[in-house]
Amino acid sequence: MVELNPEGLGAVVNRLRRAEGQIGGVLRMIEQGRDCKDIVTQLVAVNHALDRAGFAIIATSLKQCLAEPGGADSADARSLEKLFLSLS
Known about the structure:
Blueprint: H1 10-31, H2 36-67, H3 74-86
């Protein structure tokens, strides 16, 4: 499998930090007894942010595979495809 270069993942890290804050907000909403619709709306937003982070990580892996001399072998390609499909 491809090891990611952390330098290319700054936007993903920012997205995950925002999702982390959103999860904290959801917990506070539950503790405060907020409306179910509001809580679920925030959970959907968190889920979307996590999905997009996952897709960005896989896209970065694919770019790195293509940029490396010799590219990815078929096992790497299958692994990345499996990861990609697991996000859907």
